[in-house]
Design a protein that fits this description.
It is a single chain. This protein is an alpha+beta fold and 258 residues long. Helix content is 42%, strand content 11%. The chain has 10 helices and 4 strands; from the N terminus they run H-H-E-H-H-E-H-H-E-H-E-H-H-H. A 4-stranded antiparallel β-sheet has the order 1-2-4-3, sandwiched between helices. Helix 2 crosses helix 6. Bound molecules: flavin mononucleotide (FMN). Flavin mononucleotide binds next to strand 3. The site of flavin mononucleotide has 12 residues, from strand 3.
């Protein structure tokens, strides 16, 4: 198989790290590769904050919902949507900057996510693995204070990086026919793929002991697999799942006002 394809297909999230530092040279390679990501209209509407300070990582671990790997990893990255840079340029030139538009928010968020994905791929190529951390949006105000993020900048996701403590294990994905459609959306293929995936996840025991909000479903007697798990996540009331604070937070930072 083509080595790049093989590399991409070996992806697995890693949350346990060996006691080994990530060198400044490797951080530089990861950063420079992330920056080669496509960016909408070449606007560079994102920034990345790299964190090595142990106290800061420990605080971020708490803010992300007590995710231990955030404190334990040698290198934590925060990928931010950033319209501040463009706003500042416009201010200098005396132009309006419509950073309040929903489209501007989408552009900046997608830019940050693309850079994050490429950073992870680059890191993995160096033997450094990790996991994306959406938990960075649990307490976004506090994260902004800690990292001194200005208005019009928000943390889209974090990323714990380090050398894996054990060989990474890939997780099965939804059968391709359920999300890769030809010429038109195919609802029945999606339903069939979901059923198949439930069997795969159940047979592999991937969700054993990971039932969401078990106390809310005392009468559940079915097979607890991917569809049940995902439906419960989408029904969840915990503030760290669907993060109901996010719209107000984003508007306060200058996003999504129009
Ligand atoms: C945007 C994003 C945010 C994520 N946030 C977290 C997180 O906060 N904590 C965590 O342990 N995993 C997080 N993950 C990892 C996913 O749970 C993981 O990618 C998914 O279960 C598939 O597993 P795999 O990456 O090992 O294939 C996140 C993934 C993405 C793409």
């Amino acid at each position: 198989m083509n080595p790049i394809i093989e590399h991409l297909r070996s992806h697995a999230s890693v949350r346990q790290f060996a006691d080994r530092a990530v060198s400044a040279d490797d951080e530089e390679i990861i950063a420079a590769t992330a920056e080669r990501s496509p960016t909408s209209s070449n606007l560079h509407a994102y920034s990345i904050v790299s964190v090595r300070d142990q106290e800061k990582k420990a605080r971020l671990a708490v803010l992300t919902g007590n995710q231990n790997h955030v404190a334990a990893c040698p290198l934590f990255l925060v990928f931010c949507a950033d319209l501040h840079r463009l706003q500042s340029i416009a201010d200098v030139k005396g132009y309006p900057c419509h950073s309040e538009y929903t489209e501007a928010f989408v552009v900046a968020t997608v830019d940050a996510a693309l850079a994050a994905d490429r950073a992870l791929i680059a890191a993995q190529a160096l033997g450094i693995w990790g996991v994306m951390v959406g938990g960075i949006r649990n307490k976004p105000e506090e994260v902004c204070d800690l990292l001194k993020l200005p208005s019009l900048v928000y943390p889209v996701m974090g990323m714990s990086l380090g050398y894996p403590a054990a060989p990474p294990k890939t997780k099965p994905r939804l059968p391709l026919k359920g999300l890769w459609f030809k010429e038109r959306y195919n609802e029945s293929a999606s339903v069939a793929a979901t059923e198949e995936y439930d069997h795969i996840i159940d047979a592999g025991g991937h969700l054993t002991g990971r039932e969401v909000d078990k106390q809310n479903y005392p009468d559940f007697a079915g097979t607890y697999s991917w569809s049940e798990h995902s439906a419960r996540r989408m029904a969840g009331t915990s503030p760290n799942v669907l993060r109901p604070h996010l719209l107000d937070f984003l508007r306060n930072r200058g996003f999504l006002r129009t």
